[in-house]
Design a protein that fits this description.
This protein is α+β, with helices and mostly antiparallel strands. 43% of the residues lie in helices and 12% in strands.
């Protein structure tokens, strides 16, 4: 086991490590800390303020004098070294005693709570998660002030030592889901966790699937809703995103803003969103299939327009579609990687210029340009970015199959996708529930957003211990004050 001076000698190779001797009439105190991680006010006020030249107190007495909650005494060299790297101050009395006081004095620097940047909403809360785990837990605690809310801390990464918090409501969340989630996180072995998205991919049931099996969000109100519904939330220090599970396929097409609108308007927006996703996936594959194999199915009304638009195009429909799809993907990536103002300009100007030039150069037809533009626009309606990326990738197998087998190829790929979704799970929960296994009682909030009077029961597929939200009969009573 290394002695404390040996530990400090190793750390002294770093410029920001401070180690000095505080002399007293008896044995001196040896103090060490990393200057870049320690708050100087806590150091001088709460620790050094109790040490003077006339000090003749033991290490145990000094431990009780320091007014800091997070402190400990340890002789273990690994514990001392690990805590020093987490912003602790180590205090040792003399060289004979290996006991060391470790006092947390970490310096917290980071941005304040701001508005959501990805999941912006007109109505509802304007607070978003930040990179501080303590602040994020505070945002959740404010919205779920119940004693049953449990937070389990796990440290991951042999190099990064990232703190991960697993949050759930005891007595509501199914214990099997909680145990499965914690076990998967503890079994992960990796050196650096720079963001929670790395952990998100490692704990999913099928890491080879393009369909996400967990949902990431930056909205604390959305996480509060998920916790009360019986789901598990995962936070990581240094990441402004929270991940919750288990989830089903329908959650990825539900915007949390739907719950802030009247149920009829929210249902309409949800149906528009789902219809847009179907159009985005099948529009260009159907164009390739019809133009290649099923031309007889084109109406006489559109036939002259399509023939005239493709009259001078030298490429077959599949090449024409792939060129336009790749151009759209290039514009998306360019807009995402450039600064915001320049990215918006590139997306608008580039789309107009390239679209006009492609039609004038007879690389593509006007008809296909409209279909591709509408398909790209429809894919943006998906609220969750990871599912939006999945839909973008999913179009290409359908296009290739449509070129090889026509509409039959589209059905073959669709059956393959459905088979994959039937086998997919999220923390062991079926991915297509409540469609498969079919549950009539859970359909009320899957396709349409029902009135709040219908939310008297939580989703049964979460298998919560407390499925009832409120009394169904009392919810229907609307008494006036004089009754």
């Amino acid at each position: 086991m290394k002695s404390v001076p040996q530990i400090w000698k190793e750390l002294n190779e770093s410029l920001d490590f401070v180690c000095y001797e505080h002399k007293t009439k008896s044995e001196p105190y040896f103090i060490g800390y990393l200057n870049s991680l320690v708050d100087s006010q806590v150091l001088h006020r709460d620790i050094l303020g109790h040490l003077t030249e006339d000090s003749n107190i033991s290490l145990e007495d000094l431990y009780h004098l320091i007014p800091v909650a997070e402190k400990e005494m340890s002789c273990d060299s690994k514990t001392i070294q690990g805590n020093l790297l987490q912003g602790y101050v180590a205090v040792q009395h003399g060289l004979q005693d290996h006991s060391t006081i470790l006092v947390k004095a970490s310096l917290s620097k980071g941005r304040q709570v701001t508005e959501p940047q990805v999941e912006f909403t007109v109505e509802g809360s304007k607070e978003a998660f930040v990179e501080s785990l303590d602040i994020n837990l505070n945002l959740i605690r404010k919205r779920v002030p119940v004693p049953e809310l449990r937070v389990k801390e796990i440290t991951l990464g042999t190099a990064s030592k990232a703190k991960v918090a697993v949050c759930y409501i005891e007595g509501t969340t199914n214990e099997q889901y909680v145990n499965t989630c914690i076990q998967r996180i503890e079994d992960v072995e990796f050196d650096v966790f720079s963001d929670i998205t790395l952990l998100q991919q490692m704990i999913e049931d099928n890491s080879n699937s393009i369909f996400p099996q967990t949902v990431g969000t930056e909205r604390p109100d959305y996480v509060a809703w998920a916790l009360i519904s019986g789901q598990i939330c995962i936070l990581m220090d240094g990441s402004p995103t929270a991940v919750f599970a288990p989830v089903n396929l329908g959650i990825f097409f539900i915007s949390y803003e739907d719950y802030f609108l009247p149920w009829i308007i929210g249902s309409f927006m949800r149906l528009v969103r789902m219809t847009s996703v179907v159009f985005s996936i099948f529009a260009t594959p159907l164009y390739v299939a019809v133009m290649t194999y099923h031309g007889q199915g084109i109406s006489n009304v559109f036939l002259p327009t399509i023939i005239s638009s493709r009259l001078n195009v030298p490429f077959p429909p599949v090449v024409e579609v792939l060129i336009m799809e790749l151009v759209i993907e290039l514009l998306r990536e360019a807009g995402a990687r450039l600064p915001s103002k320049i990215g918006q300009t590139i997306g608008i100007v580039g789309g107009i210029v390239l679209g006009t030039a492609a039609v004038e150069a007879s690389i593509t037809s006007n008809f296909l340009l409209i279909i591709v533009a509408l398909s790209a626009l429809a894919s943006f309606t998906t609220p969750i970015f990871r599912m939006s990326a999945t839909i973008r990738v999913l179009r290409f197998p359908f296009i290739i199959a449509a070129q090889i087998w026509g509409i039959l190829g589209i059905f073959i790929v669709m059956l393959a996708v459905i088979t994959h979704l039937l086998r997919l799970t999220s923390l062991g929960m079926p991915y297509l529930v409540p469609i498969y296994p079919f549950r009539t009682s859970d359909m009320f909030d899957s396709i349409i957003r029902s009135p709040y009077s219908k939310y008297h029961h939580k989703f049964s597929f979460f298998r919560t211990s407390q499925p009832v939200r409120f009394n169904k009969k009392k919810a229907k009573l609307k008494r006036d004050i004089d009754e």
